[in-house]
Amino acid sequence: MTSLSAKNAVSVYSLIVGLFMIIFWAALIVTNQILPEEIPWAISFHLAGEFATAVLLIVSAVGLLQSKKWARILSPFALGMLLYTVIVSPGYYAQQGNFSMVLMFIILIALTIAALISTFRATKQEKNRIS
Questions:
Q1: For residues 48 and 41, what is the distance between their CA atoms, to the nearest angstrom?
Q2: Whole-structure pTM value
Q3: What is the span of the domain harbouring residue 37?
Q4: Nearest Cα to Cα of residue 46 among 6, 91, 8
């Protein structure tokens, strides 16, 4: 996989996951499937983290596609935020016995790790070309 195609793959992955996260949480909010009155502080901070992750994924994806230098720094940061959320999120679904969602998160963990590795390899290759 060349550096350019890896960059595009990471960009597309980040863009799709970021958009999906916003759509997923917006759908839960609109359909009243989130009950903030039960744990208002916890869910508020959780949603802030989820939306921040989604926005940073989308912004970094657009930046990578436009070959912006700042996106090479933002992308691994956003992917790191995503890795955290896909590691902690399956517990809720496992508790409910929803193992198809747990499987989805396992796949997302693997894809996010692959995206991070690809990002770091591309950065290393670029540094080697400059040196």
A1: 11
A2: 0.90
A3: 3-130
A4: 91
| pLDDT higher than threshold 60 for residue 54 | yes
Q: How far is CA 14 from the centre of its chain?
A: 6
Instruction: Write the pLDDT tens digit of every residue in 70-125.
Output: 999 999 999 999 999 999 999 989 999 999 999 999 999 999 999 999 999 887 88
Round to whole Å and give the CA distance between 55 and 77.
12
Token digits of residue 25 = 């949480």
d(Cα 10, Cα 57) in Å, to the nearest integer? Answer: 10
What three-state secondary structure class fits 130?
helix
CA-nearest of 49, 61, 62 to 21 is 49
How many structural domains comprise the chain?
1
- With helix as H, strand as E and coil as C, how does 48-99 read? HHHHHHHHHHHHHHHHHHCCCHHHHHHHHHHHHHHHHHHHHCHHHHHHHCCH
Structure tokens at 120: 């770091």
Place of tokens 């863009």: 15
